[in-house]
Design goal:
Elements lengths: L16 E4 L1 E2 L18 E2 L2 H14 L5 E5 L8 H14 L5 E6 L1 H6 L2 H9 L2 E9 L3 H6 L6 H13 L3 E8 L7 H15 L3 E6 L8 H6 L8 H14 L6 E4 L10 E4 L3 H13 L15
Helix pairs in contact: 1-2, 2-4, 7-9, 9-10
Length: 292
């Protein structure tokens, strides 16, 4: 398979065929991210993608799930995406789900008719990086989007019947903006009503732009205890009408919390409260751990 650079995928796509349709990320300016810094963005040509599908089919013909990598598959023209989806459906008879990362901008730029057509051809879910519900924090982190754009993108996904797996990053506001991050993130999630919600903890690698601000102490990382307090506030203030499967079981997190909102909200809060009241049992320290 002609895969260029490092491979990145959501944890839930471990058993999926990872099909690279674009290389890197067209935005690639987020200060906290280093995933695609070594790649120059481009859209792969259809022939190459089909050849990769053929090779994957020869190796294993029973894939049920496909993840379209890298970070920007929806930036592709809809006609090209449909050709890829049609070819995947033709090759893999048991295929029942195609997913991809998606930016709010790329979702908004697709017409509702295009999104519905993509859904009908198998694009059943996208992973949407909310990161924070705060306009200030998104701007500081050079996310390239606003809370309103994120909400509009989420609404469009619902209308197209494409499931939304939203990701937030704990600690993204640093010490100075932790309350703002928690409150605004909970507020936006409550409006979005995603089907899935995942919480990651900020991990800044040395080649990510934010690392310089950490080293210069312009950005102060939260301690493990502060991270869990922030998660507590987010969950406490999320108010949903529909069920949302919540997970904080990513490797970056200090402790795994999971459940379905709003049903398991109190259970999750009770668990977090117990952990915060007994930090020694969980080896949690209230000091600044640099995650570089």
């Amino acid at each position: 398979m002609d895969y260029i650079g490092k491979m990145w995928r959501p944890p839930s796509e471990a058993n999926s065929l990872i099909l690279q349709t674009t290389v890197g990320c067209s935005h690639n300016k987020c200060k906290f991210c280093n995933m695609y810094k070594e790649k120059n963005f481009k859209i792969k040509n259809t022939k190459t993608i089909k050849n990769d599908i053929d090779e994957s089919f020869q190796n294993y013909s029973n894939y049920r799930r496909v993840f379209l990598a890298d970070g920007d598959a929806l930036i592709m023209p809809t006609s090209k995406l449909l050709k890829i989806l049609n070819y995947l459906n033709k090759k893999f008879q048991y295929l029942n789900r195609v997913t991809t990362y998606a930016t709010p901008k790329n979702i908004i730029n697709k017409s509702l008719e295009d999104l519905i057509e993509l859904r009908n051809k198998g694009l059943k879910m996208v992973y949407l990086g909310l990161e924070s519900g705060s306009k200030k924090i998104l701007k500081n982190m050079k996310k390239g989007t606003t809370p309103l754009q994120i909400l509009n993108a989420a609404d469009k996904l619902k209308k197209a019947n494409i499931k939304n797996s939203t990701t937030i990053i704990l600690g993204l506001g640093g010490k100075n903006n932790s309350d703002l991050h928690a409150n605004k993130t909970a507020e936006l999630i409550s409006k979005m009503e995603p089907e899935y919600l995942s919480a990651l903890t900020l991990m800044v690698k040395k080649d990510a732009p934010l690392s310089k601000e950490i080293q210069n102490e312009k950005f102060k990382l939260l301690t493990p205890i502060e991270i869990l307090k922030e998660l507590y506030e987010i969950i406490k203030n999320i108010n949903l009408k529909s069920n949302c499967i919540f997970r904080s079981n990513h490797a970056s997190n200090y402790y795994s919390i999971k459940g379905t909102l709003p049903t398991d909200k109190e259970k999750m809060l009770d668990k977090l409260e117990y952990i915060l009241n007994n930090p020694q049992k969980y080896n949690l320290k209230n000091d600044n751990m640099r995650r570089l």
